[in-house]
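FAQ: What does a multi-protein file look like?

Like this. Sequence, then tokens, then the next protein.
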Amino acid sequence: MRPPPAGRLRRLAEELEESGLPPIASEPLRDMVLEEIDHALRPVVHEGRVPSGGTILEPRADPDRWGPGTQLEITRKSVAGQPLADLRRFADGLSSWLLRRADGRDEWLLFDRPAGSERDLVVLTTVMDAIVVQRHPSGAVRVVGDFGVLRWLGLAWHHEPSVSTWVDLVTACAFAGDTEVLEAMLEFAVHDLGSFGIGSLLVYRPDDEPGPAVEERLPTPPPLQIRTASHLAPLRHALAQVDGAAVFDREGILRQLGVRLVPSAAAEESVDPLHGTRHTAGRRYSYDDPDATVIAVSEDGPVSVLRNGTVLGRSTEDD
């Protein structure tokens, strides 16, 4: 396999920097990142099939932390010295990954379950202190690191900043609850729902007392925990099929699903509409339940955080 042309990599580097990828000080790491992104954008097609793939680049965290931190059972196998093209052939970017280091100590990583959603990639990069490049079976290409997520949209890159860069903003103002639970909900909203275009309303209620009246239209859901990785796929799958809000308790456990948020007369009079029906309902509910935090996810991706009738923050940079 021929290496990509230097001119093409240079243009790719300029495009990525303009889109939000910060400069990478280490030249060997920068070269590997560009090489993997170029390969993800231009994979080798075999008999009409476009393979998925995934590479974890230069992890700096202690390997003993990888399994507990990601909630995965990880099998490692050294493959140092083998041709790169052959190594990539076995890495699907879901359950099997290629790990590359600048010093050539490459490995295969095998997971006990698929971990290829955008949120999975954020967890991998955070726990391993690495950069991840993935081509998903859907064709989506993502570059993930401490800078956030870069998504290739077919014509341009979209930069989704790290949730950690703005979570302080939404917890500083009269926040009641567990910061780690809210951060997990925000990561789920941005990387599991927003990246799939699943419009939703998530309500975090840290108060055990009954909240404002809502219209319950579905049976009590299973107690899925927002901080348990294996619970997120069924939660995302359910939210893609229902209207209404999902309500979580202080510990981040799902308690109600598909509820219609009914605003009070005072909320309708005092709180202006926001975007469409979903955001308006969430904003007015937050006015009626001021200790709650409402996360509204648009079908086109951006996430808004609402409390006490006020918009505290949005996930997109331009907002």
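And here is the next protein:
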Amino acid sequence: MPACRLSGCRIGQTGECMEGIKDVAECPNYVVEGSGPASDVTLEKSGARKLDVVRLPLATAMSPEATYEVTRSSFARVVVCAGEQRSGKTTLLASIYEAFQQGQMGTLAFAGSRTLHGFELRCHLSRCQSGLEHADTDRTKPGEGFQFLHLGLLEMSDDTPTDLLLGDMSGELYKAIRDSSDECLKYTFIGLAHEFVVLLDGRKILNGEHSEAFAHATSLVRALVDTNVIGRRSRVTLLTTKWDLLRVKGKEDERARLGELEQHFLETFRPMLGEVLCAHVAVRPDKGDPMGLETLVRAWTARAEMRLPPAAPLVEVPARRAFDRYAAIRRTESPWGSTW
């Protein structure tokens, strides 16, 4: 039976490669059950020439620890996305990658990725090779924990490179962090992100399930604030997904309802956070092109630093020990000044 080294490939069941390679024998991940790599002894006996083996990185999603190699070597923007199951979080990340496969996003161009396989696994169910009639996205599995996807981007107007690290957490992890302070403290690196994005499912706004969905989103942000994981240096965005369902004619009441929820979110968290924003996006609408995707990516890659609250003035505390007071006087009277 044919098999594939990549998880999620169903070549053993369907006989079709998830990457669309027609001759599966040419796929580097294709293996035949029971076969394995030939040993050096076998190669020597057969007289075959031993080839130099170049090991390539797996290019799957990165752990939080693995992102340090990116952040310490380039200008990187870290974006953490959190949302309930089926809120559109993984679809959002996959759609950003797919948009760059079609060409530039304005003046932003694709400049590489260290997690190509991670993106491809998330995009597979939206491809013809998946065999599905309608595009879908494989949801983030609970056992995968917290992972990051990497996109290298280039601003064509001034040749400025930017590395975008997109944090992806499962819906189960979202719930655990929302309901437990101990879980919040396990992910303190969220506070180091340039953007923390909380997704609000637009379909639930449409179906009248807005109260529960909004309560879960605010509870998550509140839990992270209460444990000091995020605070006055954090930028938080409430992102409503599936905006195409709400912007059509006849949904004025639903849009007004969303506006009230957004206003409440802003008023609640502005005193606690550095910056609070609201945005809308529709990455895979039933009709037409994606909405709000370029604006969102532009905001994430902006190099302008967020304005921080003014620092409190330093207050000089009188020295308690006589020796410290003597040293202060000597520094004042010394011709060498503070270098004394």
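Q: Is there any per-entry metadata?
A: Some entries carry free-text notes. For the entry above: The beta strands are 2-4, 30-32, 76-82, 108-110, 146-155, 160-169, 195-201, 235-241, 275-280.
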